[in-house]
Amino acid sequence: MSDLTSLISRVLFVASFVLAGLATLEKLVNLFGYTVLQEMYEPWRLLEFAAVALLFVFALQLREIHHALATKGRP
Fold first, then answer.
1. Which of 6, 30, 26 lies closest to 18, judged by CA?
2. What SS3 state is found at 53?
3. What pLDDT is recorded for position 75?
4. Structure confidence by residue, pLDDT tens digits, 14-70
5. Which of 2, 6, 50, 60 could disulfide-pair with 20, CB 3.0 to 4.6 Å?
6. Please, which pLDDT band fits residue 71 given cuts at 50, 70 and 90?
7. pLDDT of residue 38
């Protein structure tokens, strides 16, 4: 279970930075009057998705830390 949680955490972490980079790129391209995403999502919406993904990463990491500390304290 820990391996699956770690994998999900890593995937969400990378996905959140990809979304944040895409939002930044979209905003820069929009300043010149063009678009990358063809008006599917606004840059702020992509940043919201990235923030939600990072929130889940933080929660998963805290869960792993809690589990590691709980098993370490037991004899």
1. 26
2. helix
3. 61
4. 999 999 999 999 999 999 989 888 878 889 999 999 999 999 999 999 999 998 898
5. 50
6. confident
7. 82
Domain extents for the chain?
2-73
Give the predicted TM-score (pTM) of the model.
0.82
Helix-strand-coil split of the chain, %, nearest 5? 80, 0, 20
Q: What region does 33 belong to: left with phi over 0, alpha with psi -120 to 50, or beta?
A: left
Residue 70 CB coordination number (10 Å): 9
The Cβ of residue 37 has, within 10 Å, a number of other Cβ atoms equal to 16
| Cβ neighbours of residue 75 closer than 8 Å, sequence gap 6 or more | none
CA 12 – CA 32 distance, rounded (Å): 31
Side chain identity, residue 63: R
Backbone φ and ψ of 16, nearest 5°: -65, -40
